[in-house]
């Protein structure tokens, strides 16, 4: 019972504290601080380091704290109406520097010759001068050298906020309870929770700060992963999944009919997925594989398995081009086995659409391929058993759950067209099972990638011409469709005109971009895949999935504007046949990181390596782009730098959720309570 009251006491409004009235409460509310606990949980976003340093090591304009002896009589000067400057010479070690205080004329009486003074300010190396922002008379103190800096708004300043936090800690700090089980605290030698709170707000040393940070990182990851694992557990227990008893013999026959044998990795993931199909749980699985690793055929095999079990299947893809292409390849693989495959996109209209919807509802269609139009209201299935969605990393946990409410609890497999770094995969997709194709089909040549300056475009075109002369085809990718006054980057329409001129009727140049109608797009793609068009100038719409094996060269304009994962995905459009392929990045990156990124592209063909690098260089927010990504927010933890802790916390969470003791013992009740607050778990009985 004591637990409950402690937490309740902490959850009182901030106004229970003396000195915090309605006005202050309003200011705090602007920072989303309403309760005492929220005040304590308002962590600094950085620390000012007040340790003494040798001025020789301090860079120009850097903030620094120094201790020195006043070496000249402070001299006060007024200028303007209320402006003043107090200047003095101060001896700091072997340096004689100038110190100024602005608009604090009263200090003239306080600071005297020969005083010892400690002050902080920006170091002007050229003038050997510091303008003091903070100071105290007397020697530098050994303690409290990490001053927390809080983000604030409006009239509330950091100093005042810090005072409130200090007060909250003194009055309520003893109510903060440990929430981590003893076993983990001991194993990982973690600082206790109350201590960690004290340290994060009032650190005495860097070492101590590191320890407190380490504790919160682990706690944040553990709580997050517990949520994910609990979601998974309740999903499994609550979903009325259907066991799909597929026909193993038929499946083997289909696999044998393929023009190649599956890689070991493909076999492994087919097994994993088929195991889910057969089990009475609802599948919630993520399939990752590099570009060209052969995910499509895995999808085809598993969709076929589902059909042999007597159910319908659906394959959802992000673009119509991709839908067309998957439709063709699935038809080729599956129609010989009496499977009826259909395509449903927005360009299928009127009577045709009506008939198709009718057939879907009557169960006459076995597999349907389409864009998101597939999960619209008017689309009904007779017995939808299995849904595969491609490139869905743009959805968050919640959207995925909504998607899964469609149909009769179908098994769901998510395929990502871009490899996702493991840290992100187990965070964003933490509640899912993951299958990885980590092997390429035999005989693949690696794509040779070069980085050239944009001025080299014509020479690169000459190189392209050589490939074309051998009968091959190529892509040129531009960031924009047409010229823009805002951005100085290349656009597809201009490049198309330029190329048409350059190749002078020798080769046919196609133009592809997102503003074409789907009929036009289809026409261009068809012309390119049948080699009536040799060079396709395009925006990134060809990024996903497009398969023209005769294309052996790709030129990417303004390549520094794209993420590594995206460049890799684009590059994956070549190297699909048996011939050596090339990718040329035209880029004049201005930053070091930009140059680094181009270099990495030329050094590796491994999508997983690239995605890790991309995450490292751009951070988790940018990795998925601006669209809703479902990334959780951590206060202290950083998914990239603390990935080891993330792994450890994940393993611990899996162990706890599967155990009996986690759900029963008092020791875990604080953690259980934290789960209660999360989306998707609200209805569950957790404590
Ligand atoms: P992904 O979707 O993973 O990028 P795809 O499924 O489009 O890759 O496969 C790329 C190409 O490789 C396709 O032409 C496909 O037929 C071929 N392929 C797939 N698996 C194998 C394999 N095991 N051996 C040889 N070729 C394969
Ligand atoms: Mg694919």
Describe this structure in words.
This protein has 687 residues and is α/β, with parallel strands linked by helices. Helices cover 40% and strands 18% of the residues. It is globular. The model has no long low-confidence stretch (mean pLDDT 88). Bound molecules: adenosine-5'-diphosphate and magnesium ion. Adenosine-5'-diphosphate binds next to α11. It catalyses: Couples ATP hydrolysis with the unwinding of duplex DNA by translocating in the 3'-5' direction; ATP + H2O = ADP + phosphate + H(+). Belongs to the helicase family. RecG subfamily. It is an enzyme of class 5 (isomerase).
Q: What is the spatial order of strands in the main beta sheet? A: 11-12-10-13-14-9-15
Q: Could you state the oligomeric state of the chains shown?
A: single chain
> Counting H and I runs of at least 4 residues, what is the number of helices?
24
Give the distance, in angstroms, between the N- and C-terminal Cα atoms.
13 Å
Average the pLDDT over all residues and give the rounded result: 88
Number of strands: 21
Question: Which structural class best describes the helix and strand composition?
Answer: alpha/beta
Strand content: 15-25%
